[in-house]
Amino acid sequence: MKKPQSGFTLVEIAIVLLIVGLLLGGVLKGQELIDSAKAKNLAQELRSIPAMVHAYQDKFRALPGDDVAAIRHLCSGGDTCTTVGDGNGLIDGDWDATSGFETVRFWQHLRLANLMTGSTDTDDAGFLPRNALGGRLGVQRGNSVLGVPGSVVVCSDAIPGKIVRQLDIALDDGDPARGSLRAGTTGATGLVAISAANPLEDANSHTVCASL
Q1: If you average pLDDT over residues 102-119, what whole number do you get?
Q2: What are the structural domain ranges in the chain?
Q3: Residues contacting residue 8 through CB under 8 Å, at least 6 positions apart
């Protein structure tokens, strides 16, 4: 008499596949929610900087970083707590500069004016701001980076392409190659704008710049 063969029945296999499918669906949905939260945090960072710039301008009639009277505006008791700008109405320097430019002093002026938190010591290792993903956050003169229009743009790097797409939908027209928010990749000579020849890759790291 033959012994009955052991193994899974079709019903058992179907149940296992159903459970695996539910688990995978939960993981993918969870990752989608995480990416959405990251995009919202990045969007909030990009939105908050224009508000701080406008508050500084309303208070001192100058741009932070470029303020020619910054010592008088921000320091007390005759101290020289900062360096003044040249007052030319532009924030000079590259957005990812580390020292010596108005784009770096921009953050110090905002903090001394109590418009944002953080160290006011430009030599502090944690002085330069970071975005929600750990990348650099900075400002630069408009039209000089990725062709983004406006007098001042804010840039943020180390952002995966799939989050760039969500960010552009939230803040602009959904096309990272044009509009007031544009994306680029780091090339041998600097940022290379997203285009048909340089497409946005979901898994790659990108830099976004948006007009204030």
Answers
A1: 97
A2: 14-211
A3: 16
